[in-house]
Amino acid sequence: MQQLDPTIADFIAHCRHAKALSPHTVRAYTQDLADFSSFATQERSISTVSGSDVEQYLQGLNRRGLSPATIKRRLGCLKVFFQWLASTKAISDSPLEQFKLTIKQVRRLPRAISRKELRELVRVASSSTTVTPKGATDLGILLMATTGIRVAELVALKLGDIDTLGGQVRVHGKGSRERTVFVTNTDLLRKLKAHASARLKVSNIDGHLFVNQRGAPLTTAAFRARVRKTCDASKIKRRITPHMLRHTAATLLLEEGVDIRIVQRLLGHQSISTTEIYTHVADMTLRKALVRADLARLLN
């Protein structure tokens, strides 16, 4: 009988190599399954895990105070894991095939930053070499805020993905899905071309667009740290994260009247319902503008 822990290790290897999932997803699966293994005991046979066991595990997560989003993610991970076991004939059927559990999750509105905050962030990033060693932090910020790419997608960009003549960038998204985003602003395209040209002098087209001081590929954690340091050195009063730049791109595009299906493609959303949440943010901005205008006041 196959035990739980060795099987989890095989599944993680499958996700990393055969499915080529992103390091972020592999890390999340590893953490989630390690937690479930601790609950179910590592020596347990995988064939004895039932839907009841999983339900008890999820109830335990709730008692531990984990958020609905985290619990939902853990359930999704377990479903994928047991589906894989069934597909490899390690078990006859997934114990979660008929498993249904409604997890109420509060849908939070995306947090975007204002145009003023974005200008201040770019100003500091482009002028302070002490805050942003090796430069290019301002380029990364602008690319995220204008194309909506994820921070993991940003640091994964390679020189061969950049087409400065056409103003196109090939993005390697979630689930090994590729998409193209466009850099249409002349100044930003010039900045991108200058940086890519400088990198090509010391690397080939397989080299990463963004690197650290040692010349190694920049990590998501390192870029987050750069944004945090830039924010700390600016006049911005709140904490800014890279993901807020992605939210900003979606919100600004919708505010400028770009069709929601185009925004969906740019962001790499599989479902348009994921993109639709940004329309609420754009509507709130519209409402604030109307309050400021107060057209009825002009009639008095």
TrEMBL record:
One of its GO terms (molecular function) is DNA binding. InterPro entries: CB, DNA_brk_join_enz, Integrase-like_cat_sf, Integrase_catalytic, Integrase_recombinase_N, Integrase_SAM-like_N, Tyrosine_recombinase_XerCD. Residues 2-86 form the Core-binding (CB) domain. One of its GO terms (biological process) is DNA integration. Residues 108-291 form the Tyr recombinase domain. Keywords: Chromosome partition, DNA integration, DNA recombination, DNA-binding. PROSITE patterns: CB, TYR_RECOMBINASE. Transmembrane segments: none annotated. The keyword DNA-binding applies. This is Tyrosine-type recombinase/integrase. It comes from Oleiagrimonas citrea. The lineage of its organism: Bacteria, Pseudomonadati, Pseudomonadota, Gammaproteobacteria, Lysobacterales.
